[in-house]
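User: I'm writing a short report section on ligand binding and want a predicted complex to refer to. Could you take this sequence and arginine and write out the structure as tokens? A short remark afterwards would be nice.
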Amino acid sequence: MWKGRFQQETAPAVQRFTESVSFDWRLYKFDIEGSIAHAAALQKAGLLTPEEHQQIESGLRAIEREIDEGKFLFRPELEDVHMNIESALTARIGPAGAKLHTARSRNDQVALDLRLYLRHEADEIRRLIVGLQRALVDSAGKYRTTVIPGYTHLQRAQPVPVAHHFLAYVEMLQRDTERFADAARRINRLPLGSGAIAGSTIALDREYVAKLLDFPEVTRNSMDAVSDRDFVAEMLFALALTGVHLSRLSEDLILFASSEFKLIRVSDAYSTGSSLMPQKKNPDVCELTRGKTGRLLGNLVSLLTTLKGLPMTYNRDMQEDKEAVFDSIDQVKMALEVYTGMIPEIEVDAARARAAAEDPALLATDLADYLVLQGLPFRQAHEVIGKLVAYTLEQQRTLRELTIDEFRKFSDRFGPDTFEVLDLDRAISRRTTIGAPSLENVAAELERWKSILG
Ligand code: ARG
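Assistant: Sure. The structure tokens for the complex follow:
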């Protein structure tokens, strides 16, 4: 492609080192879509005849079909997907093909391809997240009255319906979809026409190209447009955070499935065995999801590190953006698909969950609230209940096993209704603040999510 200036062939090791077609070939559909729109602008500017434009378009469509069918030979000596397609086009249609790269550089071309690709993937990922949210909402509905201990510091804290726990992840995933939609807004700007750095002396109608490619905006500074990879970093961040959310869910499931907790069972189809220990059933799906999150964070940091020292404008370093973002997209999509299949296969052991949640110590805060409602300042109530809990530990009895006289030794504000406070169902039903998990609230949230998720 640059034979005019060069007298020597590229060294074979340099070819291997600089080529990107082995991974950027997957941009081919977007590259072709962009080239077809570019050709339309060239024709509009009088630089292509309608026949030439037609030849380019049908030539590119034929190449697309060849690639679709696995019949196209990508040549590493042509470096990247852009030059492979352009070269194949010229070989196929002759002189018209040689006009396609007029008023265009690979610098604005690759920026365009990436934006088209990421815009598409952002939509795909949002769709997959919604699928997982639906699975979580369905499971939450199945266990809408099952109560488990909720944990802080991984110590039993307060009882919550399982559905509330599942819906917490639905909320996180909702913010993830919002982040992808927000990133897509900034992705959705046409960089083509920026050329290598300073646009072109051949003026093409960028607004027209934007319309053809369904971009609501065009970029406003050619230097920025060819050197900007913010939009890739934003995608990597959104992917990393989605990964972190899935990783936390994984950790919950791993813990809850362990013999120590034994609150859930995951079906055989979503578990793996041990090659040595016949009794083992391992949560490898969860562990790999947690493990792959390391890669997602690495990919984000990798791109930011690549960008941080780059002078304006395009530098070849930027080719390193692709493998990072391809990998994060592939891994997150796979994890979302596997999780969407696995969530319905999770069974909660409702009896064990209930038994664990029945521990009256989980209602110590409710007892403090009771004293507050009898007029004791909260700090004093907290201390009274703290002493009571210490007393139960010493006695090796639970709060529910104490007599009312024992309660009254700690505060004369305890009345005959004290034991009602220690009733689990009643305790849950009193949590009526917006966002708190009374069964009524949770049922309403389930309905809200069903209508949001359609
Ligand atoms: N393969 C290159 C990349 O991914 C395309 C742009 C190349 N531009 C250049 N001036 N060498 O970044």
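A remark for your report: DSSP finds 19 helices and six strands in the chain. The CA atoms of residues 151 and 157 lie 5 Å apart.
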